[in-house]
Protein 1
Amino acid sequence: MKKTHRLRTALAVGIVVLVVSAAWLLVPPPRHTAYPPPPTALPASESRAALTRVATAERVNVADLAVPFAPARVATFELLIDGTSFFPRILDDIRAARSSVHIIQYGIRPGAVYDQFGPVLKEKSRQGVAVRVIVDQLGSGLDTGNGALFDDLAASGVQIVRNDPVALDRDGLIGGPRPIDWRLDELAHLDHRKTFIVDGRVAWVGGAGIEDHFANGTFHDIYARVEGEAVEQVQLAFLASFRLLGGPLPTDQAAIDALLPAPADPGQIPTTVLHNTPGAGHLANTDAIERLIDGATRRLDVMCPYSADGGIFERMMAAARRGVHVRYVVPADSNVLATAAALEHWYPDFQAAGVEIWEDPVLPHAKVVLADDRVLIGTTNLDAWALYRNWEIGLLFEDAAIADTVQQQLFEPDIARSQRAQPQTNPVLRAVDWLMALISPLL
């Protein structure tokens, strides 16, 4: 009887926990407009002053990071497609680093790709280059078998902090004291960003982790490599997050200034750095995605591996109904069945509205929204976690030549090898699709 009572009690507690968790996830997070940038948005020229405040503050809160960035510029733009193209170039930039290498990665996992990055990061640290890394506990499996990888990096002098979305929130460097942060400001907020910043002068923003499937032909992704004044804002976003998670920053003004060197060429390409700061209502990537779709007049090309948000889908269909040529590239065979089913539920509506759904046989992991002559390249999927709960980053380019380049080099080849999607006809699978669409706010 006692055993049965304990089982019933455990079951009841489990149900309560699940109900409370579901209710918490379904409550719309607080949100204020972060894009278009308000008049108070931070220009690149004020990045040093902002970094000084973050570096010297006794304590940094999430709200301190919810700062919209003013439109900036980049001097160079390069689109690199697939790991065989971008990983060697990223490694070349890291090898050439003279002062700092900063990395935010949702996924860093053992394998052939990490075997290239690990020794280079260790060597740069031994050379006296400051190597700082932000990694996500869930995305990189720190507590499920991969912790030794990061312990080894930390032992080599690499400074690593971790975001703890599903673990007790502890702040500080891996390998050092990590006291509990009772604010629990990381709970259920994944750090989904993928960014490299070298010497504060070169920034890479894209969708790929340091994982083998981005280099062996099974996942298809991109990175944008940029130089110019917008890199200062990407650098600031990294350093503020590093400090929030307990990483140490220099407090000497000269050392702070050295982290944000003035670019040799600020650039002429209009670029806005977008970052989602969950828990503070700052969802600049989400705002920009909605604005791009709503403002499209001629063409709207979207690529995303994981999509489930009905509000975004309604906006895409509205664009098609007003005469915009809308093309949506999605996986033919997704590795996340729940979001794939939720998306498939909408296929009849997409078809009726005139939205072209193209199923790519090579899993398209890139997150890109191209609307007329503007294009957003970043890390934000079109599901509830990415749009409303995760740390995300993106670069919005307002340049016709860049938009044309992305369309010609990314979308056209992908669509050429893809097939038009057709609505599901199996009644059982249709029921599953309906159920997944119903619970899409949890996906």
Note: The longest strand covers residues 269-277.
Protein 2
Amino acid sequence: MSKAKLGNELSSGGLSELKKRLLFVLIGIIVFRLGAYIPIPGISPDKMMQFFHQDTNNSGKSFLGMFDLFSGGSFSRMTIFALSIMPYISASIIVQMYGAISPKLIQLKKEGEAGRRKINKYTRLGTLVLATLQAFFIAMWLANSHIVSPSLANSLPYFYILAMSSLVTGTMFLLWLGEQMTERGIGNGISLIIFSGIVARFPSAISSLLAQKKGDFITILVISLIILAVTLIVVFVERAQRRIQVKYAKRQQGRKMYAAQTSHLPLKINMAGVIPPIFAQSILMFIGSIPRFLNMYGKDSHYPMWLQHLFSYLTLGSPAYMVIFAILIIFFGFFYTALVFNPKETSDNLRSQGGYINGIRPGDKTADYIDSVMTRLTCIGVIYLALVSLLPMFLRLGFNVPFWFGGTSLLIVVVVLMDFIAQVQSHLLSSHYHSLMKKTKTKGSRGGLLRS
């Protein structure tokens, strides 16, 4: 078999594999979107939609709008995927943070694949526990809000069982579906599920904005330019790196002599990614939703007034909420960066490979230098995260934008898209490797790539 024929077969085989993976991702997203229209048994969908729209129209009680955004509209319809994959996100963050102080989890991380499977098992158990707790509060809220269908209004225990089992099963199914998309598709399946849920809300959000600002072309143009500018900033910062020059001395391994080399140590500005705003928002959304789930503001409420006033200060978009939100993002930004990046370990790896930073002594001095650079980068990163995460509140206050665009949702969309495109390009490069090498050699024989 000739080399050209072998290269074409490998190339076509690689493209066929890529098409299968993309098709599997598409099927997974379709399954997720279909499940977003299957209501849990025992509720009145019309009452649910009516109650949801009445509640979210009140700016002081619009936490439900945030729940609905991350669930892709499943929460407003109260479907089997109303909890979405958020319990898994919270559980994974908790396990990662606890893994930094737990000797058992630290030891599991060192055991390779076996340890990773055990950590994933703990994460799934945590997801089950969190999903069960959230499903219980949602079932209680539905019962207190009289959204239960008349056939089950007098059988609330039975309704609790139906609602909780449906919501928990939906979350665990999405977890399984996301893992299958990761294994058989392209990219992180969990991230793609969240991404598809957020993107599914864009058409209705844009139509709502156009309907509300009908005729006000200047406001629409200003909002569009702000969104475009922030998107470009997010792409720029997420791709930005601080490169520390690393030199490797001439060394000998066995009978081979390696010449001195110069490389770089890339440090991202936003090392923590979208974890800080997600975790901060999850905490505040949980606290802010307590009054709604417990019917604290109802006519028959027996809760003390001071407690009602305390929760009223933490309503979404209030000054106290924005300040606490920014503080939590900054805290979790530094905390999570410290978990995922260890300057001491990086310094030891450089020294073991014969690398050093010019003007810095190997060992503790190198670790201190890397830590100081990473601290300055993290300061810029957490400020950027806080500003971008507060963008939806600024848009609502300044332009009365009828949807929550920006913030965590924008970060997730941009980061997931960048990762997805990078993995598609990686598959394309690997599938076309042989054909590219063949073309390069052919063009080189005719006078080089520039002439061709």
Note: Confidence is low (pLDDT under 50) at residues 441-452.
Protein 3
Amino acid sequence: MPEHEIAKHTKKIYKAIRDPKHSLKHRIGEVAVEIGIIVFAITLSLFLERWRERQHEREIEKQFLVGLKTDLANDIIQQGEDSTAYTKVLAGWRYFRNAGIQKHPISVDSLLRYQQFLFNSIGLIPNSSRFEALKSSGQLMVIEDTALLNKILDLYQYRMRALLSSTDNFTTIKTNELNHLFFQNMRIQPNGSNNLPDLFQIPQIQNALFSAESIPEILIRYHIVMDESREIIRLIDRQYPDEK
């Protein structure tokens, strides 16, 4: 109720109390009516305001969850590609290490197949800006489904961070140890050829290649993140079936 309306009814109450023309009973009745009008109007105003807030919150929730579904779908595609690449890294590094330890010559086909995985980095770049924006605004509680909210929080604040920690650690070892050893020991000839196949017999490089044994854990974390992302998408689709 606007302030001027409250003031108007308050004046009526004041006049009714002081009006000598009416009995006490009549004046009390008029005061009660005016108070009732004020209380009802304020209650209705508060109800309508809360209703508008809830409608606004539901719209924020819908926009966030529908957008989040797109983010997660794109992440799953990248995660699938990353996990496939890590599988190849594991196979390649094991091949090079075993060949070096056993003094076996490196085949040209294997070198061409796995060489890129010695130097290229693989890491997830999650589409998390939408989640971080809602979190920083303090509006995460607009998500009414508690189970869905808990899964989203678990994904971004635990599962995703654990995955990124694993891949970052692997990339750090590869960059600071393996790549450093390669660049330190590689010799490029005037004709463009190099001694890369021979470097796998160096014990320090064999030790650095052993860090690939952390990849199975990385793959497990990738698939946990993908499975949890799919479950979140399923819950969003259940809540907004028309947005599929």
Note: The mean pLDDT is 83.
